[in-house]
Design a protein that fits this description.
- It is built from seven helices and ten strands.
- The chain has 226 residues and is of the alpha/beta class.
- The chain has a six-stranded mixed β-sheet, with helices on both faces. Strands 2-1-4-5 form a four-stranded antiparallel β-sheet, with helices on one face.
- Helix 4 packs across helix 5 (139-151) and helix 5 (139-151) runs parallel beside helix 6 (169-184).
Length: 226
């Protein structure tokens, strides 16, 4: 499904990625770990077409991401739901309106929006908060809205970039359990994080980045950087 083949990325002479190669199969749950600056964010930007390799190849399903034209990027990104540390929600809209907005941008019908929004809010346990504005929600609830928004177009892949970075341990665990539930339903999940406890509790595949290189790829791996 996803393949990085000998990918290099340079920014003003700095090598952000150095000969990175890996494959991720459908329905996998993969943690991408490493210290700040290790290359995790660059890998994510490559996957969603925000950046292109200096050399090498990135493919996602039928898409050769290197060759996707800017006008075709929205089509690619409909297959990938992205969740960020800072939520990136619309503060002047309710939880339901934030989720609806993702469907409106994708030109979905009013009937589809009416059906899908309650369904996905129920999935993340926020049916009773649909009418609440973002300012009325806790950090954990905001991240659940962000997950609902990422899921509502039924993407093949969810990319979660430090989704627990602003949350306390209890809410962090709740978000990770929700990502596991989404994975169990058949969606591929890529979790970029530096949280050792979360990675080690998951016991899933771990890709470890260091100084732009992929230094380990382990099934049932651990975050073993010092």
């Amino acid at each position: 499904m996803i393949a990085f083949q000998n990918v290099y990325k340079k920014y003003n002479g700095h090598e952000a990625l150095i000969d990175v190669s890996f494959r991720i199969s459908p329905k996998e749950f993969v943690s991408l770990v490493g210290r700040s600056g290790a290359g995790k964010s660059t890998v994510i930007k490559m996957l969603i077409g925000e950046e292109k390799p200096t050399s090498g190849r990135v493919t996602f399903g039928r898409y050769d991401v290197n060759k996707v034209k800017p006008k075709d990027l929205p089509q690619l990104r409909r297959h990938i739901g992205t969740i960020f540390q800072d939520f990136r929600l619309l503060p002047n809209k309710t939880a339901a309106e934030n989720v609806s907005f993702a469907l409106e941008v994708a030109s979905r019908s009013e009937k589809e929006i009416e059906e899908l929004v309650p369904e996905v809010l129920d999935l993340v346990g926020l049916s009773d908060k649909a009418g609440n504005f973002i300012s009325e929600l806790s950090g954990g609830e905001k991240q659940r809205v962000a997950i609902a928004r990422a899921m509502v177009n039924r993407p093949e892949v969810i990319v979660a970039d430090e989704p627990t970075g602003n949350l306390d341990p209890f809410n962090s665990l709740e978000i990770i359990n929700l990502l596991k539930k989404i994975n169990d339903l058949g969606t591929t999940v890529i979790l970029a994080t530096h949280n050792k406890d979360i990675v080690n509790q998951l016991g899933r595949r771990v890709l470890t980045m260091e100084n732009g290189r992929l230094i380990r790829d382990e099934e049932n791996g651990r975050y073993s950087l010092a």
